[in-house]
């Protein structure tokens, strides 16, 4: 596990850019942390680094928002599972179909049963420390040879 201080938005953006540069289809970025800790902020910065211009609505109502090439380097599913009542409801949403060939940016991943068992899952726990943030990073096995935290 790696601890990364995020004293300001620029630090969060820099972390998001690092992650975005390493993403391959099938990956999950699991964004844990309390309400308002900065999960959507990080997801927005990842999408921007992948080429997306313009708005990134918080998917809390729709649960998922899709981003497709050529506007982004690779397909992205941005999900906020906060309102998901039961992980079983994932089948109804059709998450697996949307995820095929895509990257999943997941807020409130625990509400969807969690993704840490997937080898391509990068787990990020964001915490508030005073006014700043800190990320605890736990890379799945597929992230170990990407040169990010070696
Ligand atoms: N270092 C930082 N990194 C990220 N966000 C920060 C930082 N410092 C302050 N903020 C602010 O914290 C807020 C984070 O809001 P955001 O919507 O990203 O949270 P969230 O974790 O997605 O919340 P929710 O659980 O409601 O979806 C923003 O207003 C952002 O500007
Ligand atoms: Mg959010």
List keywords for this structure.
150 residues; Rossmann fold; 27% strand; binds magnesium ion
Description:
This protein is of the alpha/beta class and 150 residues long. The protein has one domain (2-142): Rossmann fold (3-Layer(aba) Sandwich). The chain has four helices and seven strands; from the N terminus they run E-H-E-H-E-E-H-H-E-E-E. It has helices at residues 9-22, 39-49, 90-93, 95-99, and strands at 2-6, 28-32, 64-67, 76-80, 103-107, 121-129, 132-139. It has a seven-stranded mixed beta sheet. A hairpin with an 8-residue loop joins strand 3 (64-67) and strand 4. Helix 1 packs across helix 2. It is globular. The mean pLDDT is 94. Bound molecules: adenosine-5'-triphosphate and magnesium ion. The site of adenosine-5'-triphosphate (ATP) has 18 residues, from helix 1, helix 2 and strand 7.
Summary, kept brief:
This protein has four helices and seven strands, in the order βαβαββααβββ. The chain has about 150 residues and is an alpha/beta fold.
CATH fold call: Rossmann fold
Low-confidence stretches: none
CATH superfamily: P-loop containing nucleotide triphosphate hydrolases
CATH class placement? Alpha Beta
The percent of residues in helical segments reads: 10-25%
Distance between the termini: 12 Å
Helix/strand layout:
Layout: E1 2-6, H1 9-22, E2 28-32, H2 39-49, E3 64-67, E4 76-80, H3 90-93, H4 95-99, E5 103-107, E6 121-129, E7 132-139
Parallel strand pairs: 2-5, 2-6, 4-5
Antiparallel strand pairs: 1-7, 3-4, 6-7
Residues 39-40, 58, 80, 107 line the site of magnesium ion.
């Amino acid at each position: 596990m790696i601890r990364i201080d995020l004293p300001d938005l620029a630090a969060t953006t820099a972390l998001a850019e690092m992650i975005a540069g390493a993403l391959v289809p099938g990956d999950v970025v699991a964004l844990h942390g309390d309400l308002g800790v900065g999960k959507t902020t990080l997801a927005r910065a990842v999408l921007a680094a992948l080429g997306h211009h313009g708005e990134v609505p918080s998917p809390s109502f729709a649960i998922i928002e899709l981003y497709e090439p050529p506007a982004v380097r690779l397909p992205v599913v941005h999900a906020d599972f906060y309102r998901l009542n039961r992980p079983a409801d994932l089948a109804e949403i059709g998450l697996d179909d949307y995820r095929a060939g895509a990257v999943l940016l997941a807020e409130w991943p625990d509400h969807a049963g969690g993704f840490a068992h997937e080898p391509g899952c990068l787990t990020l726990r964001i915490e508030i420390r005073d006014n700043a943030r800190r990320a605890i990073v736990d890379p799945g096995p597929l992230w170990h040879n990407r040169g990010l935290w070696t």
